[in-house]
Write a sequence for this structure.
């Protein structure tokens, strides 16, 4: 047999090539980047629940503390940052609800609940819960 | 319409080179050609040493999966015109070791497929005297997952498959579900061990690319998420004091 | 993480994701955009405080905090794991993320239970 130019190649060890995954694989394709962005909205979820907790604790400390908290929220850079947070939370909600029908396949008797019905039910729940929360806050 | 199309192929000849390299070919442009036809032209007329897999040339055998311009696709089902203007970049499916040129080693997948026991499992000692009957509704429960042609485009699309080579993977899990959801099957417990392991469904983070590239609309991502729900419900049930396990 | 624990972590993650999806956008919009920007007027302290500090509100908030933190811990853990290929640090990352969520949850529980 002809002497191979690739010295690592031998007749019984032909050297399959294994491609390496780059560290920033998720920057190479838009859909992968969108996936990582979707996953990172979870950080915004953590921030949001902690901010809610912070507001409640400010209320607990008294009217001055609460007024200071509200003033902080109204500062322009904070407002802009929270607009970004809201966009991220909306992205989380929309992507989460859209994927729900793929995971929740339920059979009622002989028929399967159509995916569209599951989707509509989830969006309806979002609208109802949001409306209830707004009403609840509006009562103050 | 262009006369010629430029096709760049990632060659790998292990006896000659230590790493893959690109080679450029000019093929005639024909409106009714698939990318597979372009590869066949290259092999017939330009370089007979080009190695690649294909068979049915009509999208049912699953042999001709390759990366075309970075997307896992069936070369027999992709019009050359749709990937022009060139150059059209053809590479072997990602996520598999490359044996030569466009041929990847699929042995790991076959091993994973066998591990999920993709056959009807019935209780031992059964002596049926007639075939197992199934209603159309029962067929509909698993039919989608039975359409898999093992083309492995889903594995090439899945970043987890490349990052974690032990991951059982979309097609294997979809096929496991094809049997788990089959009313004639009694083997869900036997498949649990592999599917609920750390290399099973829990590796998946629902990127969803597998379902995007599937040429048969199997929706392996959906199959995996459904199994996560199944496995979770099962885990909570087993916590109950009156459960049998 | 043992394979026997994944279903419970995934259940927490799912519950957190669903609750966050349904509840957070409306709250964020009203409390952090509309009210501070002056588009709506929230009640004064004397009207707000009893509602906000009500035991039911505290319990609901605690549930939201715990679920939200564990949702984020689970998802962030996997993102670090796969996004930066830190497989060799798996145990450490899992410990840090779930650990931080657990500690923060306990702190939140204690605070909400004891604050007047």
């Amino acid at each position: 047999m002809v002497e191979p130019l690739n010295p690592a190649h031998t007749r019984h060890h032909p050297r399959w090539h294994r491609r390496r995954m780059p560290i920033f694989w998720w920057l190479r394709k838009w859909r992968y980047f969108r996936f990582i962005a979707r996953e990172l909205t979870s950080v915004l979820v953590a921030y949001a629940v902690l901010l809610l907790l912070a507001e409640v604790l400010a209320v607990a400390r008294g009217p001055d503390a609460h007024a200071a908290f509200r003033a902080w929220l109204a500062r322009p850079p904070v407002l802009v940052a929270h607009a970004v947070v809201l966009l991220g939370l909306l992205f989380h909600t929309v992507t989460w609800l859209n994927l729900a029908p793929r995971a929740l396949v339920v059979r009622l008797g002989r028929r399967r609940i159509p995916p569209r019905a599951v989707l509509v039910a989830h969006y309806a729940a979002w609208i109802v819960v949001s409306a209830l929360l707004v009403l609840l806050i509006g009562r103050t | 319409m262009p006369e010629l199309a430029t096709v760049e192929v990632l060659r790998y000849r292990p006896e000659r080179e230590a790493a893959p390299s690109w080679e450029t070919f000019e093929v005639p442009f024909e409106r009714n050609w698939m990318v597979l036809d372009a590869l066949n032209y290259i092999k017939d007329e330009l370089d007979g040493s080009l190695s690649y897999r294909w068979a049915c040339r009509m999208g049912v055998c699953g042999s001709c999966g390759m990366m075309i311009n970075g997307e896992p696709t069936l070369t027999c089902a992709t019009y050359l015109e749709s990937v022009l203007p060139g150059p059209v970049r053809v590479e072997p499916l990602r996520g598999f070791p490359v044996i030569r040129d466009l041929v990847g080693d699929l042995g790991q997948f076959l091993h994973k497929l066998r591990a999920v026991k993709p056959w009807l499992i019935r209780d031992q000692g059964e002596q049926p005297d007639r075939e197992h009957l199934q209603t159309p509704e029962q067929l509909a429960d698993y039919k989608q997952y039975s359409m898999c042609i093992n083309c492995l485009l889903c594995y090439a699309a899945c970043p987890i498959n490349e990052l974690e080579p032990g991951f059982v993977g979309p097609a294997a899990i979809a096929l496991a579900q094809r049997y788990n959801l089959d009313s004639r099957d009694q083997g869900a417990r036997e498949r649990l061990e592999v599917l609920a392991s750390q290399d099973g469904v829990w590796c998946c983070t629902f990127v969803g690319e597998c379902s995007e590239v599937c040429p048969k609309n199997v929706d392996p991502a959906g199959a995996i998420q459904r199994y996560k729900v199944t496995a979770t419900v099962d885990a909570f049930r087993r916590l109950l004091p009156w459960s049998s396990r | 993480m043992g394979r026997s624990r994944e279903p419970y972590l995934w259940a927490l993650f799912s519950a957190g994701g669903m609750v966050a999806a349904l509840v957070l956008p409306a709250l964020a919009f009203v409390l952090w955009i509309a009210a501070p920007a002056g588009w709506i007027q929230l009640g004064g302290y004397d009207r707000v405080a009893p509602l906000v500090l009500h035991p039911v509100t505290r319990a609901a908030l605690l549930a939201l905090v715990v679920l939200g933190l564990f949702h984020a811990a689970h998802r962030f853990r996997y993102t670090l794991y796969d996004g930066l290929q830190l497989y060799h640090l798996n145990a450490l990352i899992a410990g840090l993320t779930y650990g931080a969520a657990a500690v923060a949850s306990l702190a939140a529980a204690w605070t909400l239970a004891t604050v007047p």
